């Protein structure tokens, strides 16, 4: 992946995340030409990817599974990037393509940028609609409301947006992206700065969450989804592979209980595939793991232990209800679960 400054995700210069190139939005009023419409779009993800996993969780919590279908890419990209090698004949059964890049090419011929997930593809034309990972989940929460299930939670309540945005910004800079900055640092100082900021922020978050069940308000919001997707990967990949090893998540009583609580909440843990996560990070980033050996640990059994966070109060779904069972065909295989 490279951006216009020539920085590469795994490259020699300092790590800089590329901006999404396709920033059209799918909205109720179709202002960018993409109306919210049941059955029209396909959400392409890798279960390994934290940015894509946000969208998978939101889709489950909001009950959009029937309205927005899901394509799961192989966690190991090849030189043509994300591919549908998990599907029969190596083709996505709905889009009929072998590589996600085909949808990018259909949108913009000779697109020179990286091919990234999450991506939402327009099924009738096969064209990429958006890969704007920062906006996709906000739009699922606020623009796709006509298609939400009964009892769907409000993940981005209007009265709390300023606070949610502020928390998400800090979490993005220091935690979501901070782990990548540490992991792909090419100099000692760059690594130490990222690592310091990451753990300082985690300590602040731990203090914040000591006496409140969720980050903002007393219900699950977009802010929790975004923190969860990094925390759930922490001990499995960021602690070792990205050298974020001042302490393990399991060593912080508050954060470990917080992330376990979310993991055990329908819509969160049932989307997580630790097998995809570990194989992707350890096998794809050969610059930092040249042997491509995937570690056996950590032991996952702790994820199902009681967390006792309900004693703090809080109403996970507010006035709503938990999502129903995971649709047939979307269940995470046993290899990826505790
Ligand atoms: N900066 C990305 C955000 C999403 C992202 O970084 N996704 C990663 C996977 S976690 C990806 O698909 N990277 C492209 C690649 O690795 O080939 C974007 O351009 O939209």
From TrEMBL:
InterPro entries: Glutathione-S-Trfase_C-like (IPR010987), Glutathione-S-Trfase_C_sf (IPR036282), Glutathione_S-Trfase (IPR040079), GST_Omega-like_C (IPR047047), GST_Omega/GSH (IPR016639), Thioredoxin-like_sf (IPR036249). Residues 157-284 form the GST C-terminal domain. Its EC number is 1.8.5.-. PROSITE patterns: GST_CTER. Keywords: Oxidoreductase. One of its GO terms (molecular function) is oxidoreductase activity. It is an enzyme of class 1 (oxidoreductase). Pfam families: GST_C_2. It comes from the Bacteria. Residues 311-338 are annotated as: Disordered. This is Glutathione S-transferase family protein. It comes from Streptomyces xiangluensis.
């Amino acid at each position: 992946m490279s951006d216009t400054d020539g920085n590469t995700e795994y490259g020699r210069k300092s790590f800089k995340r590329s901006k999404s190139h396709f920033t059209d939005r799918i909205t109720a009023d179709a202002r960018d030409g993409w109306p919210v419409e049941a059955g029209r779009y396909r959400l392409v993800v890798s279960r390994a990817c934290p940015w894509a996993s946000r969208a998978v969780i939101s889709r489950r919590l909001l009950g959009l599974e029937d309205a927005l279908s899901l394509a799961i890419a192989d966690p190991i990209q090849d030189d043509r990037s994300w591919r549908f090698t998990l599907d029969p004949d190596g083709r996505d059964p709905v889009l009929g393509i072998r590589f996600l890049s085909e949808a990018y090419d259909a949108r913009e011929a000779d697109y020179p940028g990286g091919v990234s997930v999450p991506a939402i593809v327009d099924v009738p034309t096969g064209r990429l609609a958006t890969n704007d990972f920062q906006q996709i989940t906000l739009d699922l929460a606020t623009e796709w409301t006509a298609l939400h299930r009964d009892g769907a939670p409000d993940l981005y309540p209007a009265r709390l947006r300023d606070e949610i945005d502020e928390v998400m910004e800090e979490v993005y800079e220091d935690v979501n992206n901070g782990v990548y900055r540490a992991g792909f640092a090419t100099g000692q100082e760059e690594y130490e700065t990222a690592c310091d900021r990451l753990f300082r922020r985690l300590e602040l978050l731990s203090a914040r969450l000591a006496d409140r069940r969720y980050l903002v308000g007393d219900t699950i919001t977009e802010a929790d989804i975004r923190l969860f997707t990094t925390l759930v990967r922490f001990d499995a990949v960021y602690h070792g592979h990205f050298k974020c090893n001042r302490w393990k998540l399991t060593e912080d009583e508050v954060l470990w209980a917080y992330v376990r609580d979310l993991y055990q909440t329908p819509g969160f843990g049932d989307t997580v595939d630790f097998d995809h996560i570990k194989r992707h990070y350890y096998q794809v980033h050969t610059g930092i793991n040249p042997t491509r050996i995937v570690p056996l640990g950590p032991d996952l059994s702790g994820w199902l232990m009681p967390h006792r966070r309900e004693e703090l109060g809080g109403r996970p779904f507010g006035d709503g209800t938990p999502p129903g069972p995971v649709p047939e065909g979307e269940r995470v295989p046993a290899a990826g679960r505790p």
